[in-house]
Amino acid sequence: MSKKFKACIIGAGAGGLSMARALKRHGIDYDHFERHDDVGGVWDQNNPGSAMYDSAHMISSKTMSGFLGFPMPDDYPDYPGHKRILAYLKSFADACDLKDNIRFSTEITSTIKTDDGWEVTLSDGSSHQYDAVIAATGLAWHPRMAEYPGEFDGEIVHSSKFRNGDMFRGKRVMVIGAGNSGVDIAAEAARSADAAFLSMRRAYHFIPKHVFGMPADVFAVTGSLLPMFMQQWSLALVLRLINGDVTRHGLRKPDHLPLNSHPIVNSQALHHMAHGDLVPKVDVERFDGKEVVFKDGSREAVDLIVMATGYRHKLPFVDEKIIDPTLDHPDLFMRTILRNEPTFASIGFIEINGGVYRFYDEFADIVANFYSEIKDGNQATVDQFENIVKSGKFDVSGAVNYVDSPRHKVYANVLASARQVKKLRKKMGWKSLRDADLAVG
Fold first, then answer.
1. What's this model's pTM, rounded to 2 decimal places?
2. Residue 100 vs residues 131, 135, 254, 379, 440: alpha-carbon distances, Å
3. Alpha-carbon distance 104 to 131, whole Å?
């Protein structure tokens, strides 16, 4: 027997738009809130708190990155920049007729679990009751700053404050952290600063954006039928053939196989290292006035430090009884559904080694299927799914021994995620998604 059911979506970036399409497709009533005045989330530089810098591009290719049924335009380059991604997200919202249901310039201040569902309070002070809540606010909003002994006499900023290389001119600059944004910023410093250094805690594999003329993630698909350890060894061999021995640039030899950490997809950093414009350094030991002392005993005088040290995985508007604010990350089934309260989900609270939008679609559809079962009164199926959510099964990390770092606590492997989604759909009797079923525009 069907019953009344209404969901609340928080955030109108890529994850929120994917979730809205899924709920709309399943005929589930929802309200959608966005604190900014337009869609796009972190890709909109005008969105307060966005960490988007002028030269930012996707690290997954357009071929692998589009929403299901809505590929990126043919005239987009292999790796679109942030302006094109923002335009793509806006066109997706328009094509799916999602904007009319979004209440813009409205922030969520709290979500409290009640006996009747969820009480959601808005920035205007009003409260509303919902049967389910989906947080689609993403990861890159709460900067994480590293701490080191000593005092530094220069300037320290988080990478979220970086916009372009103008801030580096006439300065000696050090970037701490070798995520993709950190390496991008270090490459900018190599072009603009008087001297540029990149400090890394560990050694990494640098994956070029093109492998044998193909976008790296498209090339990776060609080996996707191999067991994971063979994929990793094959990729290690390919990288050796393309990059050579990276220790000649002053880099350390990686102590892990490719894919054991989030891939650094960058073709510029090694170029600048080879030309002496970017100097790799080991981890920082301490600050000493204008100088930075490194763990190998070397030191460099610098004027500006950019901390590309990631973000804290926080959902500050969620009831502290539901998600412990002292934890670095909530416990989410398939990186999506809160295990202890399955009517709470988060689309976009994930790191993945490939194009993520199609997985937003997959996970959003799983959530929408679950809500449909609740709405239709299929209690046995609801109980079955909730037991699965709480069981700890359906691991999306894959057979990969990830390095121990905060970002890998919310990490997922593309191939493992695809397999687990297929397995879950079969177990629950939920129809698989196809591009043809979701085609729009």
1. 0.91
2. 21, 19, 49, 33, 17
3. 21
- Quote the CA–CA distance of 41 and 309 in Å, as a whole number: 21
Q: Hey, CA dihedral for 418, 336, 181, 263, is it positive or negative?
A: negative
In tens, the pLDDT along 143-162 reads 999 999 999 999 999 999 99
Which residue type sits at 75? D
Task: Tell me if residue 391 falls in helix, strand or coil.
Answer: helix
Of 316, 319, 314, which Cα lies nearest the Cα of 113? 319
Topology annotation, domain 155-307? FAD/NAD(P)-binding domain (3.50.50)
- Tell me the per-residue pLDDT of 252-282, one tens digit each, with 9 for 90 and over: 887 776 766 666 888 899 999 999 999 999 9
Q: How far is CA 356 from the centre of its chain?
A: 8
CA dist., res. 156 & res. 290, Å (int): 12
* CATH code of the domain made up of 6-142+311-438: 3.50.50.60
